[in-house]
Amino acid sequence: MNLAPRLLYRTGLIAAFAVVVLAFGCKHPPKALPPQPPAPAPAAARPTVTLQASPTSINKGDSSTLSWNSTDATELTIEPEVGAVTAQGSSKVSPSESSTYKITASGPGGSASATATVTVNAPPPPRPPAQPSLDELFLKEVRDAYFDYDKADLRPDARAALSKTADFLKNYPQLRVTIEGHCDERGSTEYNLGLGDRRATAVKQFIVSLGVSADRLSTVSFGKEKPFCMESNESCWSQNRRGHFVKSN
Amino acid sequence: MYPFFGISPIETIHKEMNRLRVSIKAFFWKVKVSGAFNRCRLIFLCAFFSLTAQAALAQSEGWFRAGTGLGDTNKPRVAVADFAPRADSAKSHSSLFTQVVRDDLQFSGILEVPSPSFYPPEAPSVPAELKPAMWIDPPTNANFLGFGNVSESAAEVTIEAWLYDVRDPASQAVVGKVYRGAPTDLQVRKFAHQFADEIISKLSGGLPGIASTQIAFVSSRNGSKEIWVMDYDGSNQRQLTSLKSISLTPRWSPDASRIAFTCFAPSSGLTSAQICMYSMDTGKLVSFPRFRGTNITPAWSPDGAQIIFSSSMQGNPELFVSDINGGRPKRLTNANGASMSPSWNPKTGQTVAFVSDRGGTPQLYLMNSDGTSATKLDLPDKGYVIDPAWAPNGQLLAFSWRRPNDNYDIYIMDAATRQLVELTRDQGRNERPSWAPDGRHLVFESTRGGTRQIWTMLADGSQPHQLTTGGHNESPNWSTR
Fold first, then answer.
1. Is residue A129 situated within a structural domain?
2. Do A201 and B310 touch (CB under 8 A)?
């Protein structure tokens, strides 16, 4: 038996093993191939190959473009992820962690390989669970007071609402608020400005009686000039008869 | 007999031509007259139907329009001939002048302007051309004739205007004026208003004409509520303030040089209702101090030296009086509820009418101008009573009243006899009356046309006349001169 075919056979076995190992994701660098035996005549040229990643550094979720070029190769494979490729080209990759891509070019004249590394930057540390802002809390916790037609005294439901508002204001002593007095459209502009003033004052006095400092509270009457609801019916009017809280700092 | 009926038989071709021209003219005039009579018949019919309809309404609802002594069936008839343009360039201004004078006289309510379609075809342009008989005879039936001419150059318009008593041909001109000024529509309107006011003053024995007066009001047609001003007839509407917030309740000073109003102006970071003051002379706001709380509804003392307004600077909305620069505010009322909308009696200076809900609902109160003796003005029915406005004579008080199950309507009360007259009814929401300085007209806001607009009427409720159309317009105040 001739020695050369046996040697070639053995080499082929080792190369196949290496490919299998690579294909199954072995992290170890493949073992260096034993020196190539002299090629049988006529000697085929040894393949060459280059591989580049651009950019070489990405954020998680972004992609990088691998581009390669080769000579004298009949089979090219990029691992991991890409697989068999043509003699030259490019492909987008989007690794979830830093990866080294290896291209292996093989042909009648042997094989060659090249590597390119794409570094995936660590994602920013996860945000702490969202805290509602003070504005959001204000909208959620602060209750307006609603009034009966042509009245500036506080109904029981208004007192209950204002107690909640006062609790909130006591929990956030840095808050200053404006209490707006509003009226429905039925009275005159002038009379409603006076009525709205009395409503705002009634709300302020009640909040103060619950322990909120008076100098955190200012009042303004808009009468019927800034309605919340524009229709001419009781459900709308009842929305517009109110003492309304607005954050003023 | 009119002169063209007396033309002698034809002598020359020239005269023949003349005759033809005259007969054509006469023919047209006849057509015009008969057309006018048809219109006249129609108007009478309409008037008859509306009268019977009103009578039916009055009977069915127990409502009647009481007389205020304003209606006078013997009004003098004042014809205004077409003012003669001296050149083509003066044509548009001569017809504008003629029209504005006619409108002003008609609006005055104290005299009758015969329809121009009754007029003879020849209008005098100078006194020498006046042929009184043409105007005395039916159908014109004039007592007085206004006439004149308009000449115009690029730089100036000149208007010669006369009023003659056509029943007393020997008499001198009742009014004779020459107006010279810039050849603009605005200036020609001003001259027409001045001429009309002269006529009204002469024929009424000194009653001030109102044709040169103005009306301040609130309009939101450009977005935010701002203070606007217009001529009394609705022309020349212009925006005064640009505060881009909420401006309300304008009130002219007695000399018409300032307008006090309610504004929402930021003050030390906070916004609340304040008193603002606009100068008509400088076209700018005059500084006025900011007070705590809600400061609204300024009103002038008749001498123009003091302002009365509502303020919650001491807690409850009460009436305060200060000088016109806001100095030394002094509280006048002290009651439960809110007090606002003062009106200072312009004749006596002694009494202030205002609105208070101290008794539960807004009602009218009268007090002395020093704050003493506040008493409720009792009305024969419940409801909301707002917007008091003293007439220039200091005897009649106009206000808005929403009776139970009804809408806001304008009423006038004689303060001495407490006699009451309802001026509007079943015409939407009618509020905020303000008197013209002649004491015969009121301006008010009404929703009768669907949107809130400004209207005028005679003080007996007749001749309603819409002044604004664009956007929402409210809170009119008639200048005092």
1. no
2. no
